[in-house]
Amino acid sequence: MNIWFFKLTVALYLLGTFKYLLFIILLRELLAKIAFISLSAGFVLHSITFILRYFEAGHIPVTNLHESLSFFAWAILGVYLAFYWRYRIKVLGPVVATLALILMIPAMALPKEILPLAPVLRSYWLPIHVVFAFLGNAVFALAFCTGIMYVIQEHQVKSKHIGAISRRLPSLGVLDEINYKALTFGFPLLTVGIITGSIWAQYAWGSYWSWDPKETWSLITWCLYAALLHQRLTVGWRGKKAAIMAIVGFFAILFTFLGVNLLLTGLHAYSNW
Question: Which stretches of the chain score pLDDT less than 50?
Answer without folding.
Answer: 270-273
